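Notes from hallway chat w/ T.B., transcribed later so I don't forget. T.B. wanted the structure written out for a chain they're using in a teaching module, and asked if we could keep both sequence and structure tokens in one place. Agreed to drop them here.
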Amino acid sequence: MPARKKIHSASISMLILYGILIVALLFLTMAGCRLYTVFTDKRLANEQKRATLSYLQAKVASLDAQGAITIEDGPEKCSDMLVLAEGETQYETRIFVYNGQLMELFTKTTASTDIQLAEVITSEEEFEMELNADGSLLRVETSQGTAMMAIRSAKGGTDERTK
């Protein structure tokens, strides 16, 4: 009978050991999942940041022509507005922040800025622009980062904001 008790206690101790091992593996799996989620969220935020700044850079580069890039006062309750003239046409693209959203509006040059027609680019609280003295370098600053864009047109850009 004492031999049976030894085998029975050995079996119970092995079961307890396996139970501890399973609990440890579950804990490590949960910790790994949380870590993966944190890294994925950071990667997505970084991609969003790069996408927004890249979009602005591509838009400016695609419309870079003599006198095509200006900075103007935005419409009511809006930040300053980046205005990109569409070549020799009578249309322009206006980019500005309204209610925490970076907005883009494609409209006639003579039309007023109708915020209801603008499309959302991304969520954004800050949107500041500055042209250097000769209009050859545009600095765009958002809450996601800063982008410097070389204006390659002969005349460069102009700052039409009232100070």
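Follow-up for T.B.: The radius of gyration is 29 Å. Might be a good example for the class.
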